[in-house]
Amino acid sequence: MNRVLPILTILVAILAFWYAAAIWMNAPWQNILNGRANLENVPFLEFAQQTWAQDKPVLPAPHQVFSEIWNATMGLEFTSRRSLALHAWITLSATLLGFVLGTGLGVVLAVAIVHNDAADRSLMPWIIASQTIPILAIAPMVVVGLGAIGLTGLVPKALISMYLSFFPVVVGMVKGLRSPEAIQLDLMRTYDANPWQVFWKLRWPAALPMLFASMKVGIAISLIGAVVAELSNAAGGGLGVRLLTGSYNGQTIQIWAALFIAAGLAAVLVAIVGAAERMVNARNGVRA
Amino acid sequence: MSVTSINSSTTGTGVALPVVEAEHLGLTFSTNDGDVVALSDVNLTIEKGDFVSFIGPSGCGKTTFLRTIADLEQPTSGTLRINGQTPENARKDRAYGYVFQAPALYPWRTIEKNIALPLEIMGHSAQQQAERIKRTMDLVNLTGFEKKYPWQLSGGMQQRASIARALAFDADLLLMDEPFGALDEIVRDHLNSELLKLWDRTKKTICFVTHSIPEAVYLSTKIVVMSPRPGRVTDVIESNLPRERPLDIRETPEFLAIAARVRDGLRAGHSYEEVM
Amino acid sequence: MKSGLTLLQAVLAVVAGGTALFGLVGAAISADAELLLTLAFGFGALTLARFVWRPISFWLDGVAAALIALTLVWALPRGTVMPGHYWFGMVSAWAFAWLFVDQLSAAIRKGTVPRQAMGLLIPAVFGVSLLVMWEIVTRGANVPPVLLPAPSAIGAQLANSAPILWADFVQTFVKSVIPGYIIGCLAGLVVAIAVDRSPFLKAGLLPIGNFMSALPIIGIAPIMVMWFGFDWQSKAAVVVAMTFFPMLVNTVAGLNAASSIERDLMRTYAANYWQTLLKLRLPAAGPFIFNALKINSTLALIGAIVAEFFGTPVVGMGFRISTGVGRLAIDLVWAEIAVAAVAGSAFYGVIALIERGVTFWHPSVRGGRA
Q1: List of chain A residues whose C-beta atoms are within 8 Å of the C-beta of residue C200
Q2: Structural domain boundaries enclosing A238
Q3: Would the CB atoms of A123 and C126 count as touching at under 8 Å?
Q4: Given this model, what pLDDT does residue A244 score?
Q5: N or C terminus: fewer CB in 10 A for chain B?
Q6: Which pLDDT value is given to residue A258?
Q7: C214: nearest CA in chain A?
Q8: Mean pLDDT of all residues in chain C?
């Protein structure tokens, strides 16, 4: 209860602020509307309700967004082009595929870097440098480039997600695999353990907490990659496309709904990785 | 069991207020596992110029008592007076300097800037600061290391710097919580004899927490033996050793007699069986 | 082993020398082989002598890699798919480069070559190898430029379109990223310090801030474009939203980084709130704040570029990338990406340099390599 109450308070404050902002931001347009309809001296409460019920508001009220989410997921057939559930699934599948590929690639690279001096010295500076580069910028080009050779749909998006998510995993895993202290490695040496044993009995368990921490970053960034990649292929569908078409048509409620679905998706994915993390850590005796 | 000490004879005047005066002092922490009695019915008087050691096994409340004097913990019963004031007012008066178990020097400040820290907070002028830094660094034999960063110094030197920091603002009371606990014995002997010289020169009152019997006997004019569960004072031993104490005093019969009495006091508190 | 190599190095040496030998044979058979390339192959094949004669210096491997790579690039411009011996040459050059780097790093570890100078050489060799392979594959195999243009073509485009690229850089980086970054980071810092005094607010805001940091905030770009218009203001707003939460979360964590002994110390001095904040907690939070500044430097550029996908005046890096892709002007897009990469790394580098200066005392900085 002690932890929930402050969060609830802040959330309620945000909601209240949101409704107030909706009145304020939608008022100019509502005034024009009321002027056209020759409505004068509308009482404030009624005016507020009008601003919360516009068709294309500058800032939709929270209940408008949530009813749009409900209608566009539960209210529609899954196969409908307007179903947010379908678009969310399109984005989610690319995210997951990219995340799995990216994590795998990241782990393999990290193992190579930890075990080979030359790989460490040649790869690591570039991996770190590449993190400073706005990689998302190449998303449209990858999509179009791969489209030119006939690769469309899921794969290009997944490749971008993979590209984004493997960086945190490499960096985190290298740190994790190097985290055993010298005495722990010396101990393995006194047992005459072979490199394989050192890896599975020492380095890998030691690196697991770092792996999960990186995976939490990786899955969130995977989703962002998939959404941004969708911006370049309006025909393919997905939450990014909903954002884009919403912005072209001024459908603010649609934008907010897509945004909230994306946020919810990110939250659920991070929570799942977090739950897996707690499970594995508990089994490995890591203190929470 | 509680022991009230008789006024010590180290200061002649006797009219002055005691530096620390505890009457029926108690402190209970409430934790998830229930209440822990850290201090129970502690009665103690510390006179100006005393060097008092607190000794006992872990959990006996010696550090808690020091922290209570420093107003870092609040007693739950009894009274505690520092120079006749409440601990809070004494703290606001900057009545004492505190030396922690770890040097706790700020790594982003040089040694002289670390010593300047309390002076800055207490609003001393730049000129006063410079003069006090020079004097206290001299006092702890650190001259020449003003511009070094803490992490460039050895552990012993770091702890000396933290003592200098506690001395810089000229409080009459020095509270030291196992200041040399993390150092090796050779460095420790050296710092102990330097601390005695410093005490002799500055005439300060020192409260010193330790778990080493030789250290306690070597340094103190008064040894407070404590025992755990509940944390309490089991014996107060006045030392009749001379103020001038070379290191080899530790082999004299007088020294060994006092050490034996401390050891008996610790044993009487059943402290060894109860070590956590 | 006679050659004084590890197993991996021996395999690489066989591959490098062997493919050079195959290349030599192939070049000899084909009528129109380049003379210089043939000579380079010959040099590479000679290194096989290390197995029968005596170990050779690894610098010779480096020379072989450089020679074969250079002659390969020099032999390129033909416009057709290159013949077989050419590809042997590529494999050979790659194997020589790896062999060279592997032995060089072993030598650095043993201390037989100076670490400072040679430590830089290794990533440089890797980067150059990547570029050379890229050039060779794209032009040697006639990869359609739509898919992947050659580095030389991108370089030419960089030089040709310098004024356009500069205008885009000013629009996106100077006008959108910098103001947004400064406002977002400052706001995060100030809110964190304000929130820090109230445990209730902290308990409420911190989980929400953590949650927000994981969300695709970039999705608010279309909304910001509607609210603040097409020009840089909307991009700066996206950057503010993206940089705010990492700074908030990191600063709050950093303000709690001071140890309890350090705080007790301030209490024994009867220091007030602001003295404790300025003299202890903010300096102790320094590494955390710089961590956020570094994360944000990358986020800010991404945010501004992606926000431009949703509508801009006809200038800006994101605009150029999205329209360039549409017009299949891929050279220009890559040139723009190169500019973005340099700008991003330089931005990060500047922050990292300032960090080294300010948090010099932190173990991660004074310990050298992290």
Answers
A1: 6, 9
A2: 84-283
A3: yes
A4: 82
A5: C
A6: 85
A7: A220
A8: 83
In a shared domain, residues A220 and A99: yes
**Touch criterion met for A and B (3+ Cβ pairs within 8 Å):** no
The answer on A88 and A52 residing in a single domain is no
Of B67, B104, B151, the CB nearest to C262: B104
Report the CATH fold assignment for B1-95+173-247: Rossmann fold (3.40.50)
pLDDT of residue B6: 40
Sort out which chain B residues have CB atoms less than 8 A from C360's CB and list them: 108
> What is residue C368's predicted lDDT score, i.e. its pLDDT?
43
pLDDT digits (tens, 9 = 90+) for A32-80: 777 777 777 777 777 777 778 777 788 888 888 888 888 877 777 667 7
In a domain, residue A74? The reply is: no
Say yes or no: C334 contacts chain A, CB-CB below 8 A: yes
Residue A37: burial class (beta carbons within 10 Å; 0-12, 13-18, 19+) = exposed
What is the mean predicted confidence (pLDDT) over C224-250?
88
CATH of C158-366, one of 1.10.3720.10, 3.30.420.40, 1.20.58.100, 3.40.630.30: 1.10.3720.10
Say yes or no for a CB contact (<8 Å) between C268 and B151: no
Taking contacts as CB-CB distances below 8 angstroms, the residues of chain C near A246 are 222
Is the pLDDT confidence value at B7 over 60?
A: no
B56-114 pLDDT, tens digit per residue, is 888 888 888 998 998 888 888 888 888 888 888 888 888 888 888 888 888 888 898 88
The answer, yes or no, to whether residue B5 has pLDDT greater than 50, is no
Radius of gyration of chain B (CA): 18
- Tell me whether residue A66 is in a domain: no
Find which of A10, A87, A221, A252 to mutate to test the C interface (most C CBs within 10 Å of its CB).
A10
Q: Do chains B and C touch (3 or more CB pairs under 8 A)?
A: yes
For residues C154 and C329, is the Cβ–Cβ distance under 8 A? no
Domain extent listing, chain C: 7-143, 158-366
- Rounded mean pLDDT, A83-87: 82
Task: Compute the distance between CA of residue B26 and CA of residue C254 in angstroms, rounded to an integer.
Answer: 36
pLDDT at position B9 over 50: no
Measured from the Cβ of residue C66, the count of other Cβ atoms closer than 10 Å reads: 18
Give the separation between CA A203 and CA A184, rounded to whole angstroms. 10
Chain A residues in contact with C309 (beta carbon < 8 A):
140, 228, 231
C321 touches chain A (CB under 8 A): yes
A20 plus A142 within the same structural domain = no
Closest CB to C261: pick one of B102, B107, B121.
B102
Q: Which residues of chain A have a CB within 8 Å of the CB of C219?
A: 227, 239, 243, 258-259, 262-263
pLDDT in tens, A162-201: 888 888 888 888 888 888 877 778 777 777 788 888 888 8
ipTM over 0.85: no
The answer to whether residue C269 neighbours chain B at the CB level (below 8 Å) is: yes
C123, C218, C311: residue with CB nearest A121: C123
Contact A137 C340 (CB under 8 A): yes
CB contacts, 8 Å: A239 with chain C: 219
Running DSSP on this structure, what letter comes out for residue C54?
A: -
- Chosen from C269, C275, C360, C362 to mutate, greatest number of chain B CBs within 10 A: C269
The stretch B186-204 carries a mean pLDDT of 85
Is B149 near chain C, with CB under 8 Å? Answer: yes
pTM above 0.95, yes or no: no
CB contact under 8 Å between C305 and A228, yes or no, is no
pLDDT > 70? residue C80: no
